[in-house]
Amino acid sequence: MGGKRWDAAARALLALVQSGIYFTALYYSKPSQRRWCTHDWQKYDCLGEDGQRAMRSNGTDLQVVLPSYGQTGTTSVITALRELGYRAYHADDYCIYSRSLMWDRFDNALWSRGVSRCRMEAIALEPTTDAVRMAVRMSPKAKFILTWRKFSSWFKSTTGARVKEVRWGSIHEVLSKGNRFIPWIETWDDAFGTIRRVRQRGEPFFLTRDPIVAYIYRTACNGYAWHTNDHKSRGTFKSGAHEESYLGHQNEIRMLVPKERLLEFDVTKHSWEDLDRFLGRDSGRAGTPFPKPRTKETRTNDIVLESNWRNTRWALVVFMILHTLNILLIALAVRLLVWLLWLLAWALQLVDWPLEGAEELFEDAMDESPLVVVLEGVDPQTAVPLGRALLDAGARALAVPLHLPDAAESLRALAEALPPGSLALGGCAPRTADDVTAVYEVRGHFVLGPFPDRSVLRRTRSLGLAGLPVVCTPSEAAAAWRTGAVGLVVPAELASPAVMLACRDCLPQGTRVLAWGRADPGAVEDYWAAGARGFIASLGRPGESATDHTAAAPVAALVRACRAPARLWAAAAAQA
At the top level of its lineage, which domain of life is listed (predicted)? Predict the structure, then answer.
């Protein structure tokens, strides 16, 4: 369990590094748009069959123009015109579908094509209000609606809108970057044409039949962020929120537009009747409130987002998913890189590859026969016959003291002579990490303590072996588990069953605790009741090797004594 905790910490750290790489790249990446946004719009946007016919006509059907600064009621009037059936475009629309109107420099031809390609019937010029002269000249039949309000009111609204733009803009920019490194949206559109169909229709966002797809395209290809547009030096931004600039722009419009084509409109005072009278039509809305989509309560200055939240929120979810996919790909790339580096280090013999299944085989052996036999004083000549005798007696786990001169040779002899998988093979009392490596090299399965320090236990864990250190107190037990131990050994001669129970209680459920002491079948049940789930018995004495004849009988008796409470405990657990 302790090893699992370390593994979880390592995975969490790796995930943090991966996320850090991704968000650092996002932070330092420069705002940019792909060719899919900056060039393909000329082939697709608004250019369905109707758009192509309109482009060939070399004329415009523009009927209404709003040349005013923003925050004067342009959105309200555009909304009203849409309710009247006009194909009305605000900057939120034409900055996407007809980007040439946003260019810093454009001529009469660009203006005509930009308006006609989308079959615009009404347009609010903001932020390109400097195009008012061209609009008057190129659209002689169009009527102009000058929306205005008192400067103090406009100033307050404008400054508040800028705060909202900065607040939401920072969030919107982060979300839009989900498509920056990998062209997810373009790839999807190339395969299915979902966005291309919306682009070819080029409908204003409030009239579109696919608001989610349209907002995805708007977020990915926002015309305001295009490198060829410097909208901050035009329109409302250029005025600097100064009263002289604000009033001067209104007077310029009054001078440019003939009076019979101009309506000065205050959305707080005027109504549907005034608009109907100017447009020469009867809307049937007399006496009803005039549209006011922007209010003080709106959280952002993005009216498309605010008015279509039920749909646009799903578009934002799509970009969140794109960020998730990017992080997953980075995680995959980082893991692949780590794996390749590990493989290279292993090929250069700089690291050892962890054994697979060593811990599982040790657990299976302990479940079958919960007894580890330590072969004291064994040597390579006696190891094999002794191991076979103990295997026949029912033992399924053998350990060789690693301090013996020929410990490595004894382990190798046992590993080569005994049937693979018939028992768990390990060592005990390692002094250095090299002792642990000796168990690893013969493809052993476990190492028993005491460990000289935690680095040896961590080495055991890194090689894929089951590490079970010796502990005598609950605090030692908790520390060993945190270091990566898969189980613990409590010396029965130094710790009573009560101490073992205290050690067991401070460990996660399922942690295996072994009692180490002299072979005493009579004490098995006491320690089992205290939480032991296995036993360790030393066979022979240091410097004195036991024979296969003298070992078989006592080991067989101890195996039977250990298996009896194990069966009862397993039956009780199954019944529970």
Answer: Eukaryota
